[in-house]
Design a protein that fits this description.
14% helix, 33 strands, mainly beta, two-stranded antiparallel sheet, 31-stranded mixed sheet, elongated
C-alpha cells in the first residue's frame, strides 16, 4: 500500500526523485555562493559606506565609538563571506581612558545563519589586543574602562538592551580564536592584587550537537609554548557547568630534568567526567612546570612546588583522595614539607580530608599583597588538620574541624591587630560549639590599641569553650587560667557573650582574676588604654616602690560601656599595699612605708593608706582619690590625711 502511494507520488521512479533532490540542493548551494560573491563584491565596492554604517550601528546601539583602519572582503574555503578588519578601536566617550584596541579581526559567515535566523560565524579571529578587567566593590565589572556588568541593571551597562543571550550566542559560533592577547584582573572587592598574563592564545569551538571545546595556551617571549589547557564538554553555558554531561580537562606544561627542558609537553593535571559524575583527577607536577609561567607574577614566588594528587571514584559512590610528597615553599619558607593529604567521600553522605605538616611562615610573602593582611607575619607549624563533614561536600549539613599547632606566632605592624608569639595547643569546633587549648611559653602579647605595654608571659595555660545557639548568640567560657608574666603570677576565668540581636551593646563580659604579688610601680602599665594617659602617667610617677599583694579584679558588664562611668557594669580592682612609697605631686614629699589598699572602682581610683610616714611623721589615715579619670572637664586629684609627730 505504502509503495503504491509513493509510486503515485513519484510516477517517474526513484531515480528521477533523487536527481531532483540533488538538483534542488545544487541550485540552493549555487544561489548561496552567488549571494556570497555578490555580498563580497558589494563590500569591496562600498568599503567606506560599509564602515560608516557599521560605526553608526555600534554607536546607536551601544553608545560607544568605533574606529576602523581598513576593511578587506573575500571568500573563505566554503565560499562564504569573510571580512577582515585592521586597526580597530572601541572607546566610551563618557569615560576618558576607556579604550580597546585590536590589531585585526577576521570573521567568516556560516551557512548555519540561514536556518538559525541569526548571524553564525564559521570563524572569528582576533589578533593583538589587551583586556584589562576591574572588579569593583559594588560588583560592577569593567573591561578596559567600560562597565560591562552593572549590578543595578539587567542589561550590559553603557549599552542598550541586547535582544539575545550573549553567552549562548558565543557558544553557537563554529570557532573563536584569540591570539596574542594580554589579560589582567584587579579585584577591588576581594582586595586581590593586580594579576596579568601576556602572550595568551584562546580558542573556543563548537562541534555537533552540544559538544564544545576550549583551549588556552601561554607562551614565553621567545615564542615557546609553556602551558596548554584543553577543555572538552558536552553541555551548555558555563554558568550551568554542573549540568554538563561529559567533561575532559587537561593541563600540560614543560618540565626540566637536570636543567634540560623536555621538547614535549607533559601532563600536569587531568580530569574526567562521565554522565555528570567525576571519574578521576590526576595531578603530578613540579616547580619547573610553572616556574617560567609564574616568573612575571609577583604574587607567586615559589622556589619549591611539587607533589602528586589523585582523586579516584571507587565503585559508584565513593571517592578516595591521596596526595604524597606534597611540597610548597615560598621565599619566606616551606609551607608543606613532604606533606601527606588523605581523604574519603561517600557521595552525598559524609567524608573527611586531613593534612599534615603545614608551616605558616611560607604564607608571609602572599599576605603582603592584600590590604587586609599587609604588615602581618605568621610562623609556626600546624602539625595536623582534619575536616569532617556530613551530607554533600558543597553543602554540608554538619562539619567538624580539628587541628594541632606548635609554636605559632602572629606579628602585626597594625595597632588594631594584636601580635602574639609562641602559641601551642589544639582546636576543635563544629557549627554549634568548639574548644581550644592554649599554652604560651616565653610569649609576648602586644596590642597597642588596648594595652600600654607588651604583656610578656613566662607561661600561660588555658582552655576556651564556645557555643552558638539558634539565635546566633555566641557564648565563650574561659576556664581556670594560670599565668605568669615577668612582673606577676595569677589566675583568671570568665565568660564572654556576643548577642548580634542586641544592636546597642552586643558584647558582654563577666571575668575575674587574682594576682598574688606585683610591684606597685607596674600597676599602671597593666591597666587598659581606656584609662586616660594622664592617669597612667600619674600612676607611674606616684607609685614609686613597694608591692601590691592579693589583688583581685572583677570585670562585668557590656563592653560598649567600659569602663562603666554610668555604673552599667563593674570594673573593680582591689589590692593590698605593702611597704609602698607614693608621691602625690612631683614637688611634694613622698609618702613612705605605706600599708593599705589600692582600689579601682569603674572610673574612680583610690590609694588608701592605713599607716604611712611623711618626713618622719606618722600618718594614721591618708587617701589619694581620683574621683573620675574619664571626666571630660579634666582629671582631678584629692589628697587628705592625718599626721602626727615631732
Amino acid at each position: 500500500m505504502l509503495l503504491s502511494k509513493l509510486k503515485q507520488f513519484m510516477p517517474n521512479g526513484w531515480r528521477s526523485f533523487i536527481v531532483k533532490i540533488f538538483a534542488y540542493l545544487a541550485l540552493a548551494y549555487i544561489s548561496v555562493i552567488f549571494i556570497s560573491i555578490s555580498l563580497v563584491a558589494f563590500i569591496l565596492l562600498n568599503v567606506d559606506m560599509f564602515k560608516s554604517k557599521l560605526i553608526k550601528y555600534v554607536n546607536q546601539n551601544t553608545g560607544l565609538v568605533l574606529n576602523i583602519g581598513n576593511v578587506k572582503s573575500t571568500l573563505d574555503e566554503f565560499y562564504t563571506p569573510e571580512i577582515i578588519f585592521h586597526d580597530i578601536s572601541l572607546s566610551n566617550p563618557q569615560s576618558t581612558g576607556s579604550i580597546t584596541n585590536v590589531k585585526s579581526l577576521d570573521i567568516a559567515l556560516s551557512f548555519d545563519s540561514l536556518w538559525k535566523f541569526q548571524p553564525i560565524f564559521s570563524k572569528i579571529e582576533v589578533d593583538g589586543t589587551k583586556l584589562d578587567f576591574v572588579f569593583e566593590s559594588d560588583n560592577s565589572l569593567y573591561l578596559n574602562g567600560i562597565k560591562i556588568i552593572d549590578p543595578d541593571a539587567e542589561t550590559l551597562a553603557d549599552t542598550k538592551a541586547l535582544p539575545f543571550d550573549v553567552e549562548a550566542w558565543i557558544l553557537r559560533q563554529k570557532s573563536i580564536n584569540l591570539q596574542n592577547i594580554s589579560v589582567s584582573l584587579k579585584d577591588h572587592k576581594n582586595n586581590i592584587p593586580l594579576m596579568g598574563l601576556n602572550k595568551v592564545n584562546f580558542t573556543l569551538a563548537h562541534g555537533f550537537w552540544k559538544k564544545h571545546s576550549a583551549e588556552l595556551s601561554l607562551f614565553e617571549s621567545g615564542g615557546r609554548e609553556l602551558l596548554k589547557s584543553e577543555l572538552f564538554w558536552n553541555g551548555g553555558k558555563f554558568e550551568k557547568w554542573a549540568d554538563w554531561k561529559d567533561v575532559e580537562f587537561s593541563t600540560k606544561a614543560y618540565s626540566k630534568q637536570r636543567g634540560i627542558i623536555d621538547e614535549k609537553l607533559t601532563t600536569v593535571i587531568s580530569l574526567l567526567v562521565k554522565d555528570n559524575k567525576l571519574q578521576h583527577i590526576h595531578a603530578n607536577f613540579n616547580l619547573d612546570n610553572f616556574k617560567a609561567i609564574l616568573s612575571g607574577v609577583d604574587v607567586f614566588d615559589l622556589p619549591e612546588f611539587g607533589g602528586s594528587l589523585d582523586v579516584e571514584l571507587i565503585g559508584d559512590n565513593k571517592y578516595v583522595l591521596q596526595s604524597k610528597d606534597f611540597r610548597i615553599a615560598s621565599s619566606s619558607g616551606v609551607l608543606f614539607d613532604n606533606a601527606r593529604i588523605n581523604g574519603e567521600y561517600l557521595i552525598d553522605k559524609h567524608g573527611f580530608i586531613e593534612i599534615s605538616n603545614t608551616n605558616l611562615i611560607a604564607l608571609n610573602n602572599l599576605l603582603n599583597f592584600f590590604d587586609s593582611t599587609h604588615g602581618i607575619e605568621l610562623s609556626g607549624v600546624i602539625e595536623s588538620a582534619r575536616y569532617d563533614w556530613g551530607g554533600r561536600f558543597n553543602n554540608p549539613q554538619t562539619y567538624m574541624v580539628s587541628a594541632k599547632f606548635n609554636d605559632i606566632s602572629l606579628i602585626s605592624k597594625e595597632s588594631d591587630i594584636p601580635s602574639i608569639s609562641h602559641i601551642y595547643g589544639g582546636v576543635r569546633f563544629n557549627q554549634e560549639s568548639g574548644n581550644v587549648d592554649i599554652a604560651l611559653r616565653d610569649s609576648v602579647l602586644n596590642y597597642n590599641s588596648i594595652f600600654l605595654i607588651p604583656y610578656e608571659f613566662n607561661y600561660l595555660n588555658t582552655s576556651l569553650n564556645w557555643s552558638v545557639d539558634d539565635k546566633r548568640i555566641i557564648r565563650v567560657n574561659l576556664e581556670d587560667t594560670k599565668l605568669q608574666t615577668k612582673d606577676f603570677t595569677g589566675v583568671a576565668k570568665g565568660q564572654f557573650v556576643y548577642d548580634p540581636n542586641n544592636v546597642e551593646s552586643p558584647s558582654y563580659i563577666d571575668m575575674t582574676a587574682h594576682v598574688d604579688k606585683v610591684l606597685t610601680s607596674k600597676v599602671g602599665d597593666y591597666l587598659p588604654l581606656q584609662i586616660p594617659m594622664s592617669v597612667h602617667e600619674w600612676l607611674n610617677m606616684a607609685l614609686i616602690s613597694g608591692y601590691g599583694e592579693s589583688a583581685d579584679m572583677i570585670l562585668k558588664g557590656p563592653l560598649s560601656s567600659f569602663p562603666f562611668a554610668d555604673n552599667s557594669g563593674m570594673f573593680y580592682i582591689k589590692a593590698n599595699i605593702n611597704n609602698a612609697k607614693l608621691r602625690y605631686v612631683e614637688s611634694w614629699p613622698t609618702l613612705d612605708n605605706i600599708y593599705g589598699q589600692f582600689i579601682l572602682d569603674n572610673v574612680a581610683i583610690k590609694v588608701k593608706a592605713d599607716r604611712a610616714f611623711i618626713n618622719g611623721n606618722i600618718i594614721d589615715k591618708a587617701d589619694v582619690i581620683i574621683p573620675n579619670y574619664g571626666d571630660e572637664n579634666g582629671v582631678s586629684l584629692i589628697a587628705n590625711g592625718d599626721a602626727h609627730g615631732e
